[in-house]
Amino acid sequence: MAVYTHVGDLELAAFLADYQIGEAISYKGIAEGVENSNYLLRTNKNGGTDYILTLYEKRVEEGDLPYFLGLIDHLSDKGLACPAAVHGRDGNALRYLAGRPAAIFTFLDGLAVQRITPAHCRQLGSGLAALHLAAKSFPMHRQNNLSLEGWRELATSTKDRADEIVPGLAQLIDESIEDLSKCWPADLPSGIIHADLFPDNVFFLNNELSGFIDFYFACNDFLAYDLAICLNAWCFGPDHSFDAQNAAALFAGYAEKRPLQDAEIAAMPVLARGAALRFLLTRLFDLLNHPEGALVKPKDPAEYIAKLKFFHATKVPGDYGL
After folding, report:
1. Conformation bin of residue 53: beta by default, left when phi > 0, alpha when psi is -120 to 50
2. Domains and CATH numbers, the chain
3. CA 149, CA 151: separation in Å to the nearest integer?
4. How many CB atoms within 10 Å of residue 317?
5. Backbone phi and psi for residue 24, each to the nearest 5 degrees, phi listed first
6. This model's pTM is above 0.90
7. Rounded Cα distance, 269 and 272, in Å
8. Tens-place pLDDT, residues 181-225
């Protein structure tokens, strides 16, 4: 989450008139994240009710929004713990505010964890499997634009300046893309994945998983790739060292609801390298193209250089707790 577009009082009041959620008491920009502009909105409904107001920025394609909003509604209806889109008086969830597509969502209680433990990772794995199973009946399809072809485009757009960040980075990226192009899986169980389940997109309340947020990278891809993303995001310490206990707990929790096939286990080292490269590239792009005045700090790509090198050096599934 972040704030790029500012909303005036009168604009907000006119916008809320199309809903049945009362009038604004307060609204405050949320600085975390990198993709959209987000506000914590409180209205006078029932004496005070909190919502999240999201304005969709340039990286999110407007044509993808029916997929994202439809998926969120579908998962919420299936009982998955996630925010629900608030529909206006006309039944539509998607509207426009301050020149941007916008939507309002119910508020999800909980906080992102700061110190990740195996217990958190086990619940994450179980919750991710529940998400995959709940999404099976969602009828829409969206291609993953941040897979091999998307990586090549990002590499091309950042190549001339990559070595400003870390010397030799452009070569590491090119070699990694060439390697992954040769061994990327072609036939694994597929479905809808979240594709961005970092700790700040997973909430816990009293050490129990309370839900998932930010589905704006969701797409159709290999289900095991979602696990590889979580492996990158949840199973390394502050010094970028791999945490095998967290990894084992992640996979064990997932297997409770959806056991992995042998082919998925065998492919995990390749998928993990791909996930590391994907976040290295998007963080590099964001750092090199940071908008002036945005209330958000771009994330350091160096973290994913270390993770990519780790996954290059460890290519046996057993190294990851499988």
Report:
1. beta
2. 9-106 (3.30.200.20), 118-320 (3.90.1200.10)
3. 5
4. 18
5. -70, 135
6. yes
7. 5
8. 999 999 999 999 999 999 999 999 999 999 999 999 999 999 999
